[in-house]
Specification:
The complex is a heterodimer of chains A (328) and B (524). With 328 residues, chain A is mainly alpha-helical. Chain A has 13 helices and two strands; from the N terminus they run αααααααββαααααα. The radius of gyration of chain A is 24 Å and the shape is globular. Chain B has two domains: 7-247 and 504-522, Periplasmic binding protein-like II (D-Maltodextrin-Binding Protein, domain 2), CATH 3.40.190; 273-497, Dipeptide-binding Protein, domain 3 (Roll), CATH 3.10.105. In chain B, the strands form five sheets. In chain B, strands 1, 8, 9, 10, 11, 12, 13, 16 and 17 form a nine-stranded mixed beta sheet that branches. In chain B, a hairpin with a 5-residue loop joins β2 (62-64) and β3 (70-72). Chain B has helices spanning 2-19, 48-57, 104-114, 150-153, 162-167, 234-242, 257-261, 300-309, 312-319, 340-343, 350-359, 380-393, 405-413, 431-439, 454-465, 469-486, and strands spanning 28-32, 62-64, 70-72, 75-82, 85-90, 128-135, 138-143, 194-200, 204-209, 225-228, 248-249, 266-281, 324-326, 367-373, 397-403, 419-425, 489-502, 505-506, 521-522. In chain B, α8 runs antiparallel to α11 (350-359), α14 (431-439) packs antiparallel against α15 (454-465) and α15 (454-465) runs antiparallel to α16 (469-486). Chain B has 524 residues and is α+β, with helices and mostly antiparallel strands.
Amino acid sequence: MLAYVIQRVFQSLLVMVVVAFAAFIVFNFVGDPVDNMLGQETSAEEREELRKDLGLDDPFIVQFGRFVTNAVHGEFGISYRLQRPVADLIAERMPATLELVALSAVLALVFGVPLGVFTGINRSSWISQLILIVSLVGVSLPTFVIGILLIYIFAVNMGVLPSFGRGGVVEIGWWSTSFLTVAGWQAIILPAVTLSLFQMTLILRLVRSEMLEVMRTDYIKFARARGLTDRAVNFGHALRNTLVPVITIVGLNIGSLVAFSIITETVFQWPGMGFLFIQAVGFADVPVMAAYLVMIAFVFVMINLIVDLLYFVVDPRLRADKAVAAGN
Amino acid sequence: MKCKITAACAAILLTASTIAMPASAKNVIRWASQGDALTSDPMAANEAPTNSASRKVYDALIYPDKDLKFKPWLATSWKLLDPVTWEFNLRKNVRFHDGTPFTAADVKFSFERALSKTSDFKRNISSVEAVKIIDDHKVHIITRGPNPILPNQLTSVFIMSKKWSEKHGVTTPQDRAGKEETYAVRHAMGTGPFKLTLREPDVRTVMVKNTDWWGLKEFPHEVDEIVYTPIANQATRVAALLSGEIDFLLDPPLQDLNRIKNTPGMKIKQVAQVRTIFLGMNQGKDELISVKGKNPLKDKRVRQAFYQAINIEAIKKKVMRGYAVPAGLITPPAVHGYTEELNKRRPYDPALSKKLLAEAGYPNGFSIQLDCPNNRYINDEAICQAVVGMLGKIGVKVALSAIPKTIHFPKIKNRETDFYMLGWGVSTLDSHFVFGFLTKSADKGWNGTGFKNQKIDDIINKIEVETDFKKRDAMIQQVWQHMRDNVNYLPLHHQVIVWAMRDKIDLPIVADDGVRFIYTKFKK
């Protein structure tokens, strides 16, 4: 088990280096940051000088090497745009993104799983049909349209929820949280719903189809024959057996929630890492882009690892197989 | 499902009252625009929104007022003693936000800081050789050679507290290649009308009224607090205004102006901005990148044909929704040297254009690429699309390449484009600023037209140092006339800026797009 984890950590390092490498190739095409950093009046010589100071004229392999060396020392440089250390910026923005993602994931699970079970069991009821149709809208509408729509309804028309920002945050050490104030909760609702809709739909549909599958199996019929209650059958036996694929998808999707919160964060001016990244792209802010991409790679790899470990917990057969294979 | 909805509704109704702006005796202006200032250090980034933010906390020697007229500010008067020596009398009884008195030493320090290696303003005041302290409230600024527009260049050189800067180790601006953030990036110490109390880049900037500000008598503004929140997404920005979460929006998108105008309690204001949008045509090369073996743009008739094929009224109406002022000159009305006469456009005349093309030897037109930014000017890409269609009508096949500004601008500066869009604002409000960058011949830099004329270059050099304003004005006219006659640029329009705000706020719109909160009045 430990050897397995260590092996995975090494794999993740490799993945991060590869991502950084790919990112640095792409950076050659995002434009010239010096142009954004200096006023229009600056002379060509001054631009050259700054390019030299920043090492932007070095061949890309040298720039990449420098980045990796610094990154190993925990040094990500200074943002070209905000003139602040990248590590500080990411640490400042991380709580906003993680809270948003966490709440979205919770919403997706809390609504997605029960609705999936419900539609799986009551296949033909009109409510199920309605839920499925509505959920189709959830997958087909792009995030920014949903976001703007929600803003239009709840902020402009009804005037009950704020259209942007985090509202009130409370600082606990270096972590800033939205969850301790009313204004913070109000501000997080719309972006969290926006971000969760796609995942919710996905989970709903996945649970539903898994349920349909499981409900046909013999052991469910047997359970019913034994006279177990509906609740015990549906949740104790059926749902539990649908969970392995659900965990895989949810796990991988938390990664995408972090990565794709970019759009939601932009729509709601949510001061998270995704927003930081998109601003960095517009400015050709290479240090921020590089650090963000590497970090996202890290998040994905870590989540994958956790998902793999969770399989052991949920599915006893995997543990047994592993034990047998190891000759124990 | 049903109960879920009711529960949600109940929750929403409960919270409804708390969202609405709490009534308070304080006059708070909450405002937004698309991007935040880059830094609070007034010398680290010479960029319009950053300068505008600095101007609230810091004062300069001279102030461009709401009509962009130069007003004595920290300097009460100035005069030219000899061609290279300017004498500035400084305002007395001025204090920094921490109570330190403002003296000539702060001025000398600030100029030296602005001239230091990591400053982004060193080019603006490159003519300054030294600042001499005469007494506590008088300085002499010595220039390298005569510089008639020195006062114009000083409006963005903000005066910092010497003591504060030394205390916090910020005697030079942030070194971008460095590793640490300096204190001045998120803190400020000026003499200005507002004090910076909170700076969260990209999130929120809060400033409060400086009740000890020296100018309060002349500008008895009623703003107690300013809360700035950048909102990058256009639609969200408008929503925030309509929902009452902000009071003032600096950059409402054109397509939403009617909606805002028709919302009770909202108003919009507009003015021609100090920025002109135009097309550059590379007339210096013998062979273009997108036209092999020749350069049709070398021929003045071709450039004129392009010009007169542009239906600028159609662009104004359809693309800009009326919010543009057609231009015949590549500089706007607020700039010294602009005249109505020069701004007259050559008429829209596609028949003449076709004739001119035929005369130049291109009866069937030719193909060329137009490079255009897609995130810099108001509706930049849409304007270029319109140009493509209009030139198509005279037989010129234009391939459009619309790209982000970070890729577009280097193309111009490195001469990698034949035909491009550019907009130019003028910080000194003087024509020489335009000539120096866009007319004077150069192998690199902003003049991507390849236009080269020794006579004109000589005149521009003379304008730079001529202190007899009559002679200087005549030379400025001469250069503009030459540019007009030779069609080395194709002017499109002066950009119009529009601000949207609640009725209760009375705030004058300024052509440089910088907010002057010191003029604010509140309607009771």
